[in-house]
Amino acid sequence: MQPRLPLRLTADRVAGLALIAFGALAIVESRGLPVGSLREPGPAYFPIVLSLALIGFGALLLAFSGGGAGLRELGWEEARHALLIVLGAAAAIFLLPRAGYVITIALLLFYLLAVVARRHWLLSILVSVGLAAGTFALFDMGLRVLLPRSPLGFF
Fold it and tell me: Region 85-111: what's the mean pLDDT?
């Protein structure tokens, strides 16, 4: 019998563990909401289904990965981008209930395109406003999913 080798901590295994932890946290946070049934799902139904999928994919990643770069071998060249994206997401979380969906998403997309990805500012404005307005029209008007409105009330 061969001795069992210890699991090598790689970036993809850490990502698998993060998916499992995030899925478990989402299930814990959903426990106060009714699940409902398959015929009439409650507000916790889809978050729990998606969380179970995250946990399953995280477990698959954890079990079948290991050929990637070790955690200690990773460089931090992209740390600046990661920090800028987290700051943008935090600002969007703060702005969403105050400024509404369209304004917040347009500002977030512009920030991600023009500041983080360093794309042309005019194209970034057009894409940001178009995607924010288009997704608002699809979800709020078309699918009747209520999205936060701006203080102006019309979008």
Answer: 94
